[in-house]
Amino acid sequence: MKRILVYILLFVFQLGFSQEVPKVLKTKFSKEALAQKLQDENGKETSIKDILHQHKGKVLILDFWAGWCRDCLKAFPKAKELEANNPNIDFVFLSLERSKEGFDKSLEKHGMTDKENYWFASGWKNDFNNYVDLNWIPRYIVVDQESDIAKYYAISPEDPEIQSTIDKLTK
């Protein structure tokens, strides 16, 4: 009887917390999303708009992750492979750690200190994450050279549409 109850609870949990493809695949960021503030490893505040501006003219991959996220950790080897196979593409890592201390520890523990990392000090629910329909991590967004969204929704670095989008943008 206990086993059946456990299976029912797991099933209900999966229904309530699974990643769903958004109904509208956006191609531009809203003004509110662009204004969203984040912090870098040093605690310096910046905005999504500033980050995109720094990478204007380049193809950019936004990688949402957290050190507590088992799916993110499983995806790391393939994410590193995607990055290694695309040396001319910029990668920015957006952390959803619950605290600055957790952010710092995860960067160190998972060998991310040599990457461009930012942390949502405001938490998961914020203007940017709400705008991009972030309902699970990992999540990947491909941004084109004009800072528009080229690939809105990918949940795995192995999604073939990530690479095909990169290839189209870099022809």
TrEMBL record:
Gene source species: Epilithonimonas zeae
Gene3D superfamilies named in the record: Glutaredoxin
Main localization, broad class: other
Thioredoxin domain location: 27-171
Location relative to the cell: Cell envelope
GO MF terms held by the record: isomerase activity
Pfam families for the chain: Thioredoxin_8 (PF13905)
Assigned keywords, A-Z: Cytochrome c-type biogenesis, Disulfide bond, Isomerase, Redox-active center
GO biological process terms on file: cytochrome complex assembly
Endpoints of the signal sequence: none
Protein name per Swiss-Prot or TrEMBL: Thiol-disulfide isomerase or thioredoxin
GO CC terms, sorted: cell envelope
